[in-house]
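Exam revision sheet. Question 4 asks you to relate a sequence to its structure. Input first:
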Amino acid sequence: MAEECDDGNTADDDGCDADCVPSRVVQLDLGGMHTCVVTRTGGVRCWGRGTHGQLGYGDTEARGDDEVPADDSNVEVGGPVIQVSCGLDHTCALLVDGGVRCWGLGDHGRLGQGNLDSIGDDERPADVPPIDLGDKRVVAIEAANEHTCAIFEDRSILCWGQGALGRLGYGHEEDVGDDESPASAGYVDVGADVLELAGGAEHTCARVEGGAMRCWGEATYRRLGYGGSANIGDDEAPAAAGDVPVGGRVVQVAAGNKHSCARLEDGRVRCWGYGWFGQNGHPGVAYWNGDASAHGDVDVGAAAADVFAGMILSCARFDDGTVRCWGGGSLGYNGSGTTEDLGNDEPIHGIALLELGGPVQTMSVGNNHVCALLDTAEVRCWGGALYGPLGYGNTDNIGDDELPVDAGPVPVFQAFDR
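Answer key, structure tokens:
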């Protein structure tokens, strides 16, 4: 039976879905140099760098550099998807049936298949079985630079991939998933029920029951928030470190390359760790000393509804859908229309709100680029465009000498006549 609304077919995600509702994006996430979205019907589309198969199309071609996402089909994941999470060079999807599939670069076992093979470079993710994570149902996934974690319905977690510096939290530095299943590693001893995870370059943070936060992995620049420089998780469990002294009840966590952030229940934002580019939100504090609360709140100007972090950038979203970002400006990363860093020598509350063309529902900050999902379901991206992660069909950076609003929406779906 054909659609009655537009194009006379029963295909989803072609501009008008089979139930005659316009196709729309419901979730997005960014990796090192690629972008993936989940559609209303559970489809996945990815664009940007494809060197290791991280886009999932069975080749290593870049997409979005001379074509737009609308020109492509959905990634064959093996079923409808409820969440996608992107690492540096890999991508993971949580399916409606509770299965998890990862694709892209396979080194260190980050794909969880018990080998080092890449997936998605000459096969589709659906061609490979779901990762063996045991019998419990997965409710959320988090792909970091070179490791991946999953949260289960009982709020326990498993992590796999690169184990150096303790980022997996198993009390050793061995990789997991390279020659064994993640399930065989056992659960990470966080010491409390995990509600949310944020993966950085070499560290992991968890929001746990009771409004606390715990972090493990590399501790340089005091990114873990405990005030010391000793790594955690390399020869002890995260539970041994206890709660990060954030200074309030935590309701959201975010992790950048060498910094971390938390949103507190009253809307205050705290960030700590490396701040050379202004990303920790404390002007003049390039090298952090003390614990997470040492320099107080980031003065974002109002109560934040969300906080996000990427490589050298942090952003706060407010209740009205406006967004303020601080940190690196190279390639247009912070969206200010210049390549100047923000937050080094000016108060964060004085940084102009981003001009995006409408209220933001959610966003994601990658290593060199940023994308926002507007209330209209439009996607806007800016920053570095090498390999096409912005999705505009070219490799022109956005945000360096123009504002993100000037680029218009990313053409994720084909246009159709209503």
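Marking note for examiners. The radius of gyration is 20 Å.
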